[in-house]
Design goal:
It is a single chain. By secondary structure, the chain is an alpha/beta fold. It has 16 helices and 20 strands. The strands form 5 sheets. Strands 5-4-15-16-17-14-18 form a 7-stranded mixed β-sheet. The protein has a 5-stranded parallel β-sheet with strand order 7-2-1-11-20, with helices on one face. Strands 10-9-8-12 form a 4-stranded mixed β-sheet, with helices on one face. Helix 5 (150-161) packs across helix 7. The longest helix has 20 residues, at 460-479. The radius of gyration is 23 Å and the shape is globular. Residues 1-30 have low confidence and may be disordered. The structure holds flavin-adenine dinucleotide.
């Protein structure tokens, strides 16, 4: 069950080897530990707490110096905007219950989120009035869809023509014929490349372009939206003081160790136990390991022996959406000068701009969050954070001259270049649902998997906790 020296060295590299030599494997190796959980995001913490409740001895290893993973509240930016998970909807039963259980208040934020009205539309560097869009020379849509704003076009078309009828079983083999690219599907409906580029790619939520995301992925998103709409279409919530407060409260309930700053570089598993190696030279051993790492980061970890072919391919290739945010503090209320909504939908590098109203007055705009997604995020990442911040400010100043000199960059947050996330959330590429959906979360000897990417019934934060429930049961069954 010991990992081979070759794999360990491959995973860790020379720097790691030096660190290990300088600081020999220390007392972190505990013989009587039942379970090691990798990652202190919602799914890892949910799994750890469930296992402790079942009487098992658990240790959590977290690579960052904070808990929460993709829940990340910017406490040092006015109004503490979320850089990670934003909001909770009505069908988030596990998340809502966790808030109650761990004493974190959930506030209804519908007014703060939607109170400002629909975002302004900016195409080709200029504002477009809502009633002018249908006749706009750059409008690539056809028929009655011409009146639909670009940000709503793909959703409207997909809802109307979604061929997957049994959304609740979107991953079922019977739907394999729809495991095709969104681009191919939209083309089959008569959409032009220009329409797909503006209406899907420009501010993409899944994939980097319509070419690399499966239509079944969007079926899964649709099924989750239907559940939330049916539960209560108007509810949208966030945890008081920031969503990161939930994982922090969960972490405080752990009985066992939670070791921060432990970046896992190798995992060895066997029939009766598993070992984990960290880049500080520490080595941890237990009867089972639960890994919550996003696959985009797990693909850089040596696993010995390799998981079965389909699972290994999933670890190496499932997609993670690149999103880079520029958080801006406005030094004056420029929207009062030009009379336009501070929130914007643009086809340029600023992406979608959200006015954050999370101060004491729910109407007051505390900051602006610009979301560049897909190819735009990759471009900003190439520029690097400082130049990316300048590029977005320059773009906003061009679009909104009244904002000139009034935009201060508070934070540039690239999720794709974060080594502990490597993207905001997972997505299936064409043909990957059929190949991986039933395989990627299967236990591999004593290595178990949780994390939002492993859930089938829900998405986002709820998916993280759904996966924690499953992983905790699997471990208990295996350990007897
Ligand atoms: C910008 C953004 C907006 C979002 N908006 C929403 C939303 O509105 N609603 C919603 O429901 N969801 C949203 N989400 C998704 C939601 O935040 C995630 O689905 C959820 O937090 C994932 O939890 P997790 O435990 O699966 O993964 P994570 O939170 O990523 O936890 C994995 C943990 O593993 C750690 N780790 C990674 N690599 C290593 C390593 N090598 N060694 C040790 N530890 C490691 C990470 O640091 C992390 O703490 C959003 C996410 C982002 C980024």
């Amino acid at each position: 069950m010991t990992i081979s020296r070759r794999d360990f060295m491959l995973a860790s590299g020379a720097v790691m080897a030096t660190a290990a030599a300088a600081r020999p494997a220390h007392a972190a190796t505990v013989r009587d530990l039942d379970v090691l959980v990798i990652g202190a995001g919602l799914s890892g913490l949910g799994t750890a707490l469930a296992l402790e409740e079942a009487g098992l001895r658990v240790r959590v290893l977290e690579g960052r110096d904070r808990v929460g993973g993709r829940l990340y509240t910017l406490d040092d930016v006015p109004g503490h905007p979320e850089a990670g998970g934003n909001s909770v909807a009505a069908a988030y039963g596990r998340v809502i219950a966790a808030g109650k259980r761990y004493g974190v208040e959930l506030d209804d934020i519908a007014m703060r989120a939607f109170g400002g009205g629909p975002p302004g539309l900016y195409i080709d560097g200029a504002a477009v009035a809502p009633d002018a869009w249908a006749q706009h020379p750059r409008n690539p849509f056809s028929g009655e869809m011409k009146a639909v704003p670009p940000g709503a076009w793909a959703d409207a078309l997909l809802k109307r023509h979604m061929p997957v009828k049994d959304l609740g079983r979107w991953w079922d083999a019977a739907n394999a014929q729809y495991d095709i690219s969104v681009h191919d599907f939209l083309t089959s409906l008569g959409a032009s490349d220009a329409a797909i580029q503006l209406g899907f790619d420009a501010n993409i939520s899944y994939g980097t372009t319509a070419h690399d995301v499966s239509l079944l992925m969007l079926a899964s998103v649709e099924q989750w939206q239907v559940l939330n709409r049916n539960a209560n279409a108007r509810f949208i919530g966030a945890f008081r003081g920031g969503n990161q407060r939930l994982p922090e409260a969960m972490a405080r309930q752990l009985k066992g160790d939670l070791l921060r700053g432990r970046r896992v570089v190798a995992i060895a598993t066997g029939a009766d136990g598993a070992e984990v190696y960290c880049d500080d030279g520490s080595r941890h051993r237990a009867k089972a390991v639960v890994c919550s790492m996003p696959f985009a980061t797990l693909r850089h970890v040596a696993i010995d022996p390799l998981p079965p072919a389909a699972q290994n391919a999933a670890i190496r290739t499932i997609g993670y959406v690149p999103i880079t945010q520029v958080h801006i503090v406005p030094k004056k209320k420029f929207w009062e000068s030009d009379g336009q909504n501070p929130s914007m939908w643009t086809d340029g590098i600023a992406g979608t701009v959200f006015a954050q109203r999370f101060g004491s007055d729910p109407k007051e705009v505390m900051s602006l969050t610009c979301w560049a997604r897909g190819l735009k995020a990759q471009y900003l990442d190439l520029l690097g954070p400082e130049a990316a911040g300048r590029a977005v400010v320059a773009e906003l100043e061009r679009l909104r001259p009244a904002a000139r000199g009034a935009l201060e960059v508070a934070k540039v947050r690239s999720w794709a270049t974060d080594p502990f996330a490597a993207g905001v959330w997972s997505y299936y590429r064409p043909r990957q649902v059929a190949a991986f959906a039933n395989e990627l979360a299967k236990p591999h000897q004593r290595l178990f998997f949780c994390g939002e990417h492993t859930a089938l019934g829900s998405r986002g934060m709820e998916a993280a906790l759904e996966s924690a429930e499953r992983a905790a049961v699997e471990v208990q069954l295996a350990l007897g």
